[in-house]
Amino acid sequence: MKPYADITDPALAKALAHPLRTHLLSALEGRTASPSELAVELDAPLGVLSYHVRRLNALGLVKLVKSVPRRGAVEHYYTATARPRITDAGWAATPSIVKQATVKPRLDQIGSEAYTALSEGGFDARETHLTRSPITVDSKGWKQLARKLESLTDDVQRIEAESTKRLAQADHEGEQEVTVVLMLFHRPASIPAPATEQQHKDGRPTRRRQVRTR
Q1: Could you give phi then psi for residue 164, rounded to 5 degrees?
Q2: At what angle do helices 46-58 and 19-27 cross, to 10 degrees?
Q3: What is the pLDDT of residues 38-66, one digit of tens each?
Q4: C-alpha to C-alpha distance for 15 and 62, rounded to whole angstroms
Q5: CATH of region 4-124, choose from 1.10.10.10, 2.60.120.1440, 2.40.50.140, 3.40.630.30
Q6: Model pTM score
């Protein structure tokens, strides 16, 4: 299990904003690869990719695992050491343009992974969960939602840590690769707000629209 690295420094958050670095961290999660292998996999120039690998190594997010002589040269192999998680304080101090550059590749990655999973039966399990709940809250409610998701993220890490121990004892029998996506954001002005609660003729309140796929 890769530990989470809480990023508070906005300069470090800015360093993670490059989309190629996001893809590199994902590609090196749970595996070891060389820049030349990653360059082919990510369709990026070797020189450019090697530079970003070195930057991630300097930031402590990837580490050199081994060096192998190859035809008069040395090929270096890296793996991810941590999953970066930008703290609220770090995010608040990050410029808006950097926030956009940070979020976009992650949304692209989520969309690509989700659509691939859909085509391969990744949403077939009974416990699969996908919920979209457009709601209206005040500032207190917004902060409550943020704290709840932060707490849930901590629970996800705890569950993963406990699972890792059990899998090690069971020789990885029953191991499942899953993805958990949590998002909280302000709805764009171009998207209509959900209808306010109305009363049925019998006096019962209607519920706000909630879209859930299982």
Answers
A1: -60, -40
A2: 80
A3: 999 989 999 999 999 998 898 888 999 99
A4: 14
A5: 1.10.10.10
A6: 0.64
**What's residue 143's pLDDT?**
92
Q: Domain boundaries in the chain?
A: 4-124, 126-214
Question: Dihedral (C-alpha) 150, 164, 53, 59: value to the nearest 10 degrees?
Answer: 50
Convert the pLDDT of each residue in 172-198 to its tens digit.
999 998 989 888 899 888 777 665 444
Pairs from 151-154 (Cβ < 8 Å, separation ≥ 24): 152/182, 153/85, 153/182
Q: How far is CA 105 from CA 108, 109, 209, in A?
A: 5, 6, 29
Contact status, residue 181 vs residue 112, Cβ threshold 8 Å: no
